[in-house]
Write a structure and sequence with these properties.
Residues 14-93 form the MRM3-like substrate binding domain. The chain contains ten helices and eleven strands. 35% of the residues lie in helices and 19% in strands.
Amino acid sequence: MVTNPTELITSDKNTTVKLVKALLTQSRQRNKHGQTVIEGIHLIDAALRSDYPFAQMLLAESAHNHPEVQQVLSRLPTYTPIMTLSDSLYESIRSLGTGIDIMAVIKVPMLGLSMINEDCLILNDVQDSGNVGTLLRTAAAVGINNILCTSATAQAWSPKTLRAGMGAQFALTIYEGLSTQDILDYVQVPLLATSSHTDTLIYDHNLTTPTAWIMGHEGQGVSDELMQCATPIALPQPNGQESLNVAIAGSLCLYETLRQRNYA
């Protein structure tokens, strides 16, 4: 059994506890510190499997002897700081419901964009964290590694998006805070965007070569500037719905891309 290397923390005035609470709830603090928080065994396991470094591990006192927590702690590098909180203190800061009370502070990767000559997914001001997480999870599933996010897109590394992505972030290369001009300057493969104003159905378009799929804002869609540089592609909707949820539309596009290449 892994023993508890730290004293029990009971005060919400503790500096680390205050920081973690801020990282969980405030995007401004995540940007300021360049850190975020992952909660729960599943996300921590995903980070461990990717050899992603931890800045700090926190767990509730009652969780310390849980077999899955013990297994996680045994896999940590020996230099990882571990802090044990009283159950009431942990409960006061967590954003998840009832479960195995363990979380970790990690550094958010800050990547400089370089030329993209392979498949990528562009998130053009997709604002809902659930949609962003679903799209990241789908991209990871089909093997698209490069994700480019314009500046108004929900944070890919926020706790909510991390949960929605189920840890897909650790398998992806994610560029955030990009401008439209960054996309146009650095993406060297054809841009495709879904549109209801074209007769070109996705099933009739050749997707066997490297492609950049653009998914746009939930209400306004892809920006005019990007749309002017993209090939519009239609997803058939024979029952006449106005539009599909962006995460659903994006998943359909990515899986049709995969089907044409590997499962035709």
